[in-house]
Amino acid sequence: MHKKLYTCIRISNQFGVGHVKNIGIIVNKGKPEARIVARELLYLLEMRGAQVVLDESVASDVGRPELGMTVEEIGKRAALICVLGGDGTLLGIARKLAGRSVPILGINLGTLGFLSEAEPDNLPHAVDNLLSGQYDIEDRMMLEATLIRKGNALGKYTAMNDIGIAKGSFCRIIQCAVYLNDSYVATFSGDGVIVSTPTGSTAYSLSAGGPIVAPNVDMLLLTPVAPHSLTARPMIFSGEETIRIEVDAIHQEMGLSIDGQLGYRLEGGDQIYIRKSPYSTPLIKLNKSGFFEAIRTKFQGEWE
Asked: Could you tell me the pTM of the whole model?
């Protein structure tokens, strides 16, 4: 039986007051209101009897240095984690905590906040639902990419949104030969390709012309970026398959990106193996409106 990449689970008073385990708060200090929201969230949680641990980078700023821990320590001790920031912040924490299976609640301090479930204006309501167990958990699929150069593995990377292969800003096109397991699929000439999860289908892939994919679909999405062909289109593969991409170009300005946040230089002849990661990210969902309602809301009614 195939492993499910997405589940919805009703939590019944797992964190009811009096039985609350540690709740972690991780903050993107680069957001102007981060300290204010972190202080308010800490107050609301402790007022309701929760035990809280804080990202050490912000613990002193909110006057509670004794609660400070590293992100890794929070991942080991917390029963769930509130991440204050934008989608980029949540993606970074998801990668750092891959394999921990700690549920994450995104509290949006950014712009779109597509992965977030709460806003600073509704913190009391979010805390009430969190501590009474009135939420669902969605296990979001992640990707695992292995970079091979001249037969040697240079690194293994985990992504929640996507793995991107792209040319430099001012360089000519690159060629990406795509194989599914050992079967040749096609060679895309252009700015590169993106391999994304269903979660990542609403990120870089969408901007490049890829489809929106519901998060409960077990698949890998490959989207060519600015292809020099009218027949090059996004492709969907089974989540149980492995995609191998061989890159080549007459220049050396090529890069591998992980969730658009981490970058590594590529050379001609490099191979990138991409498959479904054994890890997933459990996202806490407070809203009952569903995936496509969230899309309509976040995209400001463009589908109306």
From this structure: 0.89
pLDDT of the residue at 296: 81
- Pick the residue with more confidence: 10 or 252? 252
Q: How many CA atoms lie within 13 A of 126 on its CB side?
A: 24
| Number of structural domains found in the chain | 2
Which of 93, 109, 132 is the last residue before a domain boundary?
Answer: 132
Residues 95 and 122 in one domain: yes
Same domain, 272 and 147: yes
Q: Give me the phi and psi of 33, to 5 degrees please.
A: -95, 10
Banded model confidence at residue 289, pLDDT cuts 50, 70, 90: confident
Catalytic pick among 87, 139, 162, 270:
87
Domain that holds residue 183: 142-279
* CATH code of residue 44: 3.40.50.10330
Lowest mean pLDDT among 110-119, 122-131, 217-226, 241-250: 110-119
Look at residue 24 and tell me if it is in a domain. yes
Question: For the segment 93-115, what is each residue's pLDDT rounded down to a tens digit?
Answer: 999 999 999 999 999 997 777 89
Strands of 40-198 (E only): list them: 51-55, 68-69, 80-85, 104-108, 136-149, 152-159, 162-167, 174-180, 183-190, 192-196
> What is the number of alpha carbons within 13 Å of residue 71 lying toward its C-beta?
16
Do 31 and 90 belong to one domain?
A: yes
Residue 9 within any structural domain of the chain: no
pLDDT of residue 20: 54
Q: Is residue 136 annotated as part of the catalytic site, yes or no?
A: no
